[in-house]
Amino acid sequence: MFDLATVFEFTRDTVIFTVGITAVLASLGVILCSSPIYCALYLISHMICLALLFLLYNAEFLAAVQIIVYAGAVMILFLFIIALLGGKKEIQENSLERSIAFTFILTLAGELYLSATVGPTQQIEGEISPELFGTAKAIGLELYSKHLIAFELASALLLVAAVGVICLAKFSFAPLKRR
Amino acid sequence: MSLDWITEFLNELWDFTVQSLTDNVPLIVGSVKAIVIAVAVMSVVPALVWLERRLMGRFQVRLGPNRVGPFGFGQPMADTIKLLFKESIIQSSADKFLFHLAPAVVVFTAIVSFAVIPFGAPFEVFGQTIELWGANVNSGILFVFAISGMGIYGMVLAGLSSNNKYSLMGGLRSSAQMISYELTLGLSALSVIILTGSLSLVDMVTAQETIPFILIQPLAFLLFFIAGVAETNRAPFDLPEAEQELVAGFHTEYTGMKFAMFFMGEYINMVTMSALVTLLFLGGWNTYGIPVWPIVAFAAKVVFLLCVFIWLRSTFPRIRYDRLMTFGWKVLLPLCLLNLLITGTIKVL
Predict the structure, then answer these.
(1) How many domains is chain B partitioned into structurally?
(2) Which ipTM was obtained for this model?
């Protein structure tokens, strides 16, 4: 009458489906909402949904990193800026930018359709042992052996960007006097 | 005829129930543990408030609450009941949804981050191994950091939604402070992770069976504890709710139980942080030869650290905001990196 395995599979599929739909709805909320605070909140919920999806596919480390880096640090800065500038609602009006944005969305939808018709996603071929799958160790081994140069270059690029931003923003003013 | 159908259905349902119960013992044990942990963590809060008020009284050479019940034990009970029955006032200029969401986020994240804290060695009951932790996530410490990082949103949203400049200032301060000190927290925990080679909190405790990490990593312990005090918004780092400057900071506009929820969040975070320090540096439930139960050893260490939290509050004056930031970025962070460099070099050599 009841089969536990199918019940479990069904619940798992439902959970994955619900989280995915929530992620899509939240990302829609980001572009459709007019209040910046709520936009940021939609973005946060989208990122949490992504982390949940990672978790459902056994990538615990990625999920934790997703939440710590994006939801925990980047989005806090977003909210910080919104609080500093004052989050007022925008008045929506039809303009050239609006129509360009809709064209962009339609193009994205077309791309989505194309990628859906091309076929199902495929697993990445590699020699990761199943007990290491999704752990910090597997990611570390991959990142610091095969992709070391790309990793170091990316970190150098980020450092340059951070120093550049500080140069552009800070040193056009006279340094603050110490009290 | 129809009765047969019903008994057959009931039999099948009974079989299914028994079958699913026997199949899902881990699930049931997990749910029971979740409920026990959540209830225990929440009921620790009044006790902690009592402890804080009594200890603060002693530190300041006065008696503290001692009228309601023996040793003033009834006081937290009376306070809780009072807070529950207070009128909830929301000013008309507030954003209603966010105003309600903020305290819920604070309490939720505080309770959930306690879920992965292990508080004793596993033991066997009725042939089942009962592990004394909510969930053994293999990157447990990252989980704690991730969830407690989400707790900042509660404070920022409270500040934003109140539509009040003091609240906004409190929210801004808390977000800046949290981001600055989270870095120190993570980096000083990283030296312990290097020593153990694992992100699991249980592995960290088993690695300290002979010697607690506080003796090997005293600097990391100090940095972690300071950053932990700052993370939980406790004095001397309680800038987000500095009474003298900001009335009450981000929770200025909150009344009744919603105010109490911020309070609860702070105290649960205090317990979680003490438990984390115990696990990372004080050897968790290892007793080091003292003949007590492991769980008692763990609880004793946590209570001691909680007393240190209260001791700090009644000893140090609040530091100025710019000094807080300078201290975080120019003193703690370089020290952390230096400690990490030395630890890593020794580990490799």
Answers:
(1) 1
(2) 0.75
